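User: Okay, second chain of the day. Same drill as before: sequence in, structure tokens out.
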Amino acid sequence: MVQGRGWGYLSLRNLLWLIRILFVYLHVFVAAGFCGDKPDVKPGALDYLAAVQDKYHRFFYVYSDAEAAGNHFTIPGRTGNVVSGAPFPSMETACLEHPFSGVTCIRAESGLRGRDWGGWYFLNGVLTGDGTGPKENWGDHSKAGFDLTGATALTFQARGARGGERVEFFAFGVGRNDGKPFPDSSPTVSTGFIRLTSQWKPYRIDLAGKPLNYVIGGFGWITNAIENQDRSVVFFLDDIRYDKSRNGQPRFLVSYAASAANDSDARNRDVAFVYDNALAAIAFTAAGQKDRAGLIVDAFLYALENDRYYRDGRLRNAYQGGDLAPPPGWRPAGEPGAARMPYRLDESGAYREDGYEVSTHTGNMAWAVLALVAYYDAFGGTPYLAAAEQMGQWIEENCRDSINGGYAGGFDGWEPSPVRLTFKSTEHNIDLVAAFDRLHRTTGRPEWRERAEHARRFILSMWDPVEGKFWTGTRSDGRTVNTDVVPLDVQTWAALVLNDPDKTGRALRYMETHHKVGDGFDYNTDLDGIWYEGTAQAAVACAVSGDARQAARALEAVKAGRLPDGGVPAASRDGLTTGFYLSDGKPCLYDHRAHVGATAWLYFAENGINPFSSSRGVR
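Assistant: Same drill. Structure tokens below.
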């Protein structure tokens, strides 16, 4: 009996323990995704936009990728003594050979002999007057150093081509031993000579207690023949940065993620388009993220007030990502605070700008107005409404056209004499209907209603009753219809802005017949791939128009194309055609690269938001 009682008691206890163990294992398997369908753990659209917004402000980068928007100390300066006749150590900043992160890394090579030593400083440099490119500064110029107070460490990644290469890395010290009038505030801080491995390895230079209020030499390296026993060495650097956050600075988001060192990447790697940033600001506003939206609308105000030439209420089509203000000591066109424009380095090292990016188009201005008014309506702030009205007034005074109503395209090219664009875009005028309508609703001023109706009259003149679509706009005479391309967004945006169900219903049916690729949509009618931004726009337009089935299919097509980081690529493949051409005569193409605009439109589609009105599910 005693045996039986003991066995029964132990059985119950063992059973309880078994149940607990099974429960724990079941919980682990479910959490790990081994039971049933694995949950979608991709970051959301807003997560991606936030990550792009913070990419260059969580740290103070010396180098992240070649010509990246967040780079500082971008002017290379030689330091050393080479007397053997060997070539001076070289440095390539756009190496594609197994970077630690991103697309590129730095490749350095040295073949020094005897008592040779040499290397490079990463300098802030200076840009003055009408110079076409910055120059080295070794401590000769005032007010040309960064204040990095608060940084406690400089970190970087390095590896040797074979392993065993000996290199010294350092920062600061520029001009201190040469009696220069404006040297670095800190003496040189160095790693000493270190032996590299053939694998990427992190290194750290401690900056605790160092005076960092004036830095002109942000990083550097040297090597010599003695340390390397007269052997040639090759080594690589990447992710050079200070642990200094600047998340409170107004800034624009870089529109496209870098994916390869190709022509498209070279054109757009640091460019923050106004249109994309207006969409991001509207998305953050709709989500109630005041601080994030505020960083973008504050950047619009900064750009408006700190143009290097204009003070009349216009914005450029694009700005530089990263820091919006130029580095200390850089005074483009003599303006020390001028909002930075995107640039590319040509073969001579001169800075070159893009004609479209320095120009002003009415549609982009309209989207900035929409972002500012949306922010004002949600969170207040009279400067934002005042700026929106100033921009709207500039459009009225400079772009209004009397032929068939509407507003012309804007101005193209560089100051002081940009060329007035006399074509009229249906898309631009749709944007203006929405922008002027919002200004009217917010201010109550009747002139904004009249201006919205003036733009609306032109849009209706572009209606094609035969095929049931809206044409893209006119040629340069402002009257002749341009029939070369039928863009998708003209059809979808008309459905989101015009209160004309008969026309916009037909336009969406035209879209389904002529633009559809699978469950997605192409930019034009050649059906060479999916334009994800436009497909998200179609999802919003169909939802607003009551076609829930088509809206759901389009939304799923966009979500299926999302990248692991949550970003939505511009297109399903590289080289998606639009039918339009850039100012240099090259075709305007979309690539399979994460795009801020496309990702913002996904957020609108997922949440039933019409960005033209910031309303949910209604016009």
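Confidence is low (pLDDT under 50) at residues 1-39.

User: Thanks, on to the next one.
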